[in-house]
Structures are given as structure tokens and as C-alpha cells.
Amino acid sequence: VMPICDVDCQFCSFSPQAMDDRSRVTLEQFQQMDWLKNVSELALWGGIGESLINPEFPKIFNYAVERFPHLKIGLSTIGKSLRPNLSDMLVGRLNFLNVSLNAARRETHAKLVKAGQFDRVVSNLRYFMEQRRARGTRLPLVHLSMVIMRENVEEMPGFIDLAADLGVDQAVFSHYLTTTIEGNRKAGEESSLYAHQELADE
């Protein structure tokens, strides 16, 4: 939907500067995907972009919901652009939401997710969950996720506390992998818990 991101994560292989020449999906292109009538689930994100910064995302989402009401739609976001007007549109209509926060403290978040705006993400997600409760719906299922690295591993208990405070459904952890098919990630090998196995075991 949007192969460009507006933050610079240290656990990612890509940077916003390297993605500027990529094209976003338009509503017109999305409307050509009539084969979605044969699909049961749709993930409105790629591995490297922030879908919510696509200016046509609201139109694309509304079209998908109205044209293919059987679809279970999922979304993953860094959370910075999950503004109240988008939350109002998504609550009760989206099936799954993952917010990739990656830290329990704003200082750590600032180091790992450059331009990520920790307080804004938390505020956006708090509003989202308040709207879900106010509307009496369980949709979407909400995950708060963290890529575990040397820089943030000791914040895992605090991350779970934050997830509970926000009222999300699950806190999700995944290991930082230094190498992928796209190439090496920016943070390097010392950030992997493979280099800190005793700490990881603890």
C-alpha cells in the first residue's frame, strides 16, 4: 500500500531516503484487484512501509470494506500516524491491528525508532483503545509489538505493563535478526541477543 516509511528504525534494512523513488498504491490500482472477492484475509501493509501515510489509505480501506465485506482486514503500523480521525474509521471495522512500538521508554524509543515520537504513538493508541471500549466492540484485535535487541531487552517487563495499561490484547516479542534476504540491518550484530546469550537467558 505504501512502500515508504516516515521513521528510521535501527532494526530495519531500509531507510526512508532509500525508498523515496518507490510508487505507492492508488485507489484506482486497488479497485482493479477484483480477485479479492476470492480472498478471506487481506493485510494492508508491506514489510517496509507505513500504510497510514498513503494519502489514499482511507479511501482504499473504505473501498475494501464496502466492496468485499467478507474480508478480514489486518494492519500493522508504527503508530505515529494513527490519528483520531483514522482510529474513528478503523475501530469496529478492522479485524487486526499491530502497533510496532519497540520500547517501554521514550528515550529508548528515540534511539531505535528515529522520528518515531513515542508519546504521540502512546496517545494515539490510548485513544484507539478508548474508542473500542466506548463502542462495545472487540474489533480489531490489537497487538503491541517489540523487536527485542540489546538496547531494549531489559524493558520487556515495562513493555508488558504498558500494554496492560493501554488495554491491548497482546504484547508480542520477536528477536532482532541481523541479516535478512534484503541485506544487513542497520543496528549490526552487537545489537542481536545472539551476542548476549546469558542476558537473553536471564
Report on the structure:
The chain has 202 residues and is of the alpha/beta class. It contains seven helices and nine strands, in the order E-H-E-H-E-H-E-H-E-H-E-H-E-E-E-H. It has helices spanning 27-31, 57-67, 84-90, 106-112, 118-134, 156-166, 197-201; strands at residues 8-9, 41-43, 72-77, 96-100, 113-114, 141-148, 170-175, 179-180, 183-184. Helix 3 links the parallel strand 3 and strand 4. The longest helix has 17 residues, at 118-134.
In short:
This protein has 202 residues and is α/β, with parallel strands linked by helices.
How many strands appear in the DSSP assignment? 9
Round the mean pLDDT to the nearest integer and report it.
Answer: 90
Helix content: 25-40%
Give the DSSP E fraction (strand runs of 2 or more residues): 15-25%
Main β-sheet: number of strands, strand sense, barrel status? 5 strands, parallel
Low-confidence parts, pLDDT < 50 over ≥5 residues?
A: none
How far is the N terminus from the C terminus? Answer: 40 Å
Structural class: alpha/beta
Principal-axis shape equals globular
The order of strands across the largest sheet is: 2-3-4-6-7
User: Over all CA atoms, what is the radius of gyration?
Assistant: 17 Å
Task: Give the arrangement of secondary structure elements.
Blueprint: E1 8-9, H1 27-31, E2 41-43, H2 57-67, E3 72-77, H3 84-90, E4 96-100, H4 106-112, E5 113-114, H5 118-134, E6 141-148, H6 156-166, E7 170-175, E8 179-180, E9 183-184, H7 197-201
